[in-house]
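Forum > Structural Biology > Help requests

Title: Can anyone predict the 3D structure of Hypoxanthine phosphoribosyltransferase?

Hi all, first post here. I have the sequence for Hypoxanthine phosphoribosyltransferase but no way to get a structure on my laptop. I'd be grateful if someone could post the structure tokens.
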Amino acid sequence: MQVLIPADRIHARVSEMATEIAHAYEGKAVTVVGVLTGCLIFTADLIRRIDLPLRVAFVTASSYRGPTTVPGLLEIRDDLLPDVAGKHVLLLDDILDTGKTLTRVVAHLIDRGAASVKVGVLLRKIGRQEVPFEPDFVGFTIPDKFVVGYGLDFNDEYRHLPYIGVFSAGE
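Reply #1:
Sure, ran it for you. Structure tokens for Hypoxanthine phosphoribosyltransferase below:
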């Protein structure tokens, strides 16, 4: 598998993002909401480096099921989400692809009464965005390739890889 972003570059950039986030919130308490399952490793590494009072929660928002690289109908589940009314929310996701998932989840959090919602993504894929959306924090901008590793998967495999790799169907 071709390594697109090696583990050491990911860890360095996650540390930089933590500093950017801490500055943006200026000591305010933050509820970090990760979009499962892809965000798990990114969220865990990032929150350990953010010097702010934090609560951590998760939602699921999935449009990929099974062995496909084409999104389907988006489903949001917030069973693991605490009350966010009046809270500053930092939404974390593994990748900004079409923008549809993040746009819908941000709207969902605002509907739940969040005082503010900022978004951080590990990866921003160029050439796939279908709806206008600008994340507040971006780890890396990548080409339009199907990637796995560091939480991203193909058919629930490869999440454990410490790097971001370009996936080929024959692997």
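The longest strand covers residues 116-125. The two ends are 8 Å apart (CA to CA).
Shout if anything looks off.
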